[in-house]
Specification:
The chain is of the alpha+beta class. 46% of the residues lie in helices and 12% in strands. The protein is built from three helices and two strands, in the order H-E-H-E-H. It has a two-stranded parallel ribbon. Strand 1, helix 2 and strand 2 form a beta-alpha-beta unit. The N and C termini lie far apart (25 Å).
């Protein structure tokens, strides 16, 4: 199910999840989709903490904020 879009984005499946929950974003990313973290209302410190947690869970896979 890998399309040209998947290849360009570096994902395995055309699955996109837009969430404010870091665990959902990490799970979708680890499953081969594109987890997108919504952080518009967070302070810089909150954002740093959340992104660090996501980064630790996805182990270097792409992360879009």
């Amino acid at each position: 199910m890998n399309s040209d879009l998947c290849k360009r984005l570096g994902i395995e499946f055309p699955l996109f999840a837009f969430s404010h929950c870091r665990d959902v974003v990490a799970a979708v990313t680890n499953a081969g989709g594109m987890g997108v973290f919504g952080a518009a209302m967070m302070s810089p410190d909150e954002l740093e903490e959340e992104l660090s947690c996501i980064d630790a869970q996805v182990k270097g896979k792409h992360l879009w904020c």
